[in-house]
Specification:
Layout (H helix, E strand, L loop, with lengths): L9 E3 L14 E4 L15 E4 L6 E2 L2 H7 L15 E5 L5 E3 H6 L3 H5 L47
Antiparallel strand pairs: 1-2, 3-4, 3-5, 5-6
The chain binds zinc ion (3 copies).
The site of one zinc ion has 7 residues, from loops.
C-alpha cells in the first residue's frame, strides 16, 4: 500500500495514541488535520474529546472502532475544559468555546425571548466569519456537526 506524504493516514486503536498530535488522539485513517475514514471533506478538521476515555477522536465512529466501550459524550459540568481539537492549528478549545461558535450560547444568554421572525434567514446577521470556524486560526469547521452534537456533548 503506497502512502503519499501529503496524504498520511494512520489508524490508531486504544490504548495507543497518534503521536502526531499534542493531545491523546486515535481513530481510523486519520490524516494530519484529523480528517478520518468517515468524515473526509475539507472542513472535517475537528476532533472531539470523549468523557469515557479522555481521548480525542475525529468522530464517534472512530471512537467505536478504536475502543471496545460505549462512547460517553462530554459532560456539561466540564464544558470549561478543553474538549475540541482544531486539526489545522492544533489548538484545543473548551466545549463552551466550540459550541459558542454555532450560535447556541448567544441565543441562550440574553435574547431568549426574541425568536427570529418566521423561518426566513435574517438579513441583519452579517457576521463575516462562518458560524463554525476555529476561533484561533479561522479554519472552517463542518457546520453539519451540529446536527449530531448530542453524540459529543451532553445536552
Ligand atoms: Zn471512550
Ligand atoms: Zn471517523
Ligand atoms: Zn485552528
Amino acid at each position: 500500500m503506497a502512502t503519499r506524504p501529503t496524504d498520511d493516514r494512520r489508524t490508531t486503536t486504544a490504548p495507543a495514541t497518534d503521536d502526531r498530535f499534542a493531545v491523546p488522539l486515535r481513530g481510523v485513517a486519520v490524516d494530519p488535520e484529523t480528517r478520518c475514514a468517515h468524515w473526509d471533506s475539507a472542513v472535517d478538521v475537528v476532533a472531539l474529546r470523549f468523557d469515557c476515555c479522555e481521548a480525542y477522536y475525529p468522530c464517534a465512529a472512530c471512537h467505536d472502532a478504536a475502543t471496545d466501550h460505549e462512547a460517553a459524550p462530554w459532560p456539561r459540568d466540564r464544558f470549561d475544559e478543553p474538549a475540541v481539537l482544531c486539526g489545522v492549528c492544533g489548538a484545543t478549545l473548551t466545549a463552551r468555546e466550540y459550541l459558542d461558535g454555532d450560535g447556541e450560547a448567544q441565543r441562550a444568554s440574553g435574547s431568549e425571548g426574541q425568536s427570529p421572525s418566521g423561518n426566513r434567514a435574517s438579513p441583519g446577521d452579517s457576521r463575516a466569519k462562518p458560524d463554525d470556524a476555529c476561533p484561533r486560526c479561522d479554519a472552517a469547521f463542518n457546520p453539519g456537526c451540529r446536527a449530531h452534537r448530542d453524540r459529543y456533548f451532553e445536552a
